[in-house]
Amino acid sequence: MNAFLQTVADNAAFLLTCLAIFAGLVVLAWIVERFLLPSRRHLSPAKTISFVAMFSALAGVIMLFEIPLFFAPSFYKMDLSEIPVLICTFYLGPVAGVVCELLKVAVKLLLKGTTTAFVGDFANFAVGCSMVLPASLLYHCKKSKSMALVGLAVGTVVMAVFGSAFNAFYLLPKFAQLYGMPLDAIIGMGTQVNPAITSVGTLVLFAVVPFNLLKGVVVSALTLVLYKRVERLFFRSAQPKAQAHSTL
Hints:
The protein is mainly alpha-helical. The chain is built from eight helices and two strands, in the order H-H-E-E-H-H-H-H-H-H.
């Protein structure tokens, strides 16, 4: 009975942490939009909701297709779901990006469920936001292809730093706790892939850091290639003709 109550308490604490981080990111994104990005384009609520829903659904489906990486344990798999999220946030702003990140994870959970006790899904959301928010902030400060490139580069670096620290101090211990797998066993999975992985620190250094850097570079490159084409296809009819021009 005590073990059951402890499990319930652990899961409730994890859920509250997830909700608190989501609320904090929404508030942060709103403050950025309100005070730092006054010239951001504004669409009607109906069009905004439609675009966010469309790109969230697309991102959620893309999230189902995971790419295993030779240098990381099997529970680290790369997906490209940040591409629709970045396109959405480049067009609509940081708040839309955070909401899109959350909804894409919800879509993925509805379609596939979780294999990581929800820790991996939460990680995808939080670490994804750490790339999307700085990239969006810089791009909306000065909408140009060069600033988009700078924003994506900064977002990639922030994601690598934040993702590494978040994995080391919270996600890996929480995964071990909720999934019921000792942390040593998780490290052992890394050792099988790379003998240099012998601790949480080396697991982060040799698996998490290159994982986030690789994902950031690939997602950034594809976003730069695809944004203009997507804008022509979906966004032109949603804005006045005077504003219907690409900045990427």
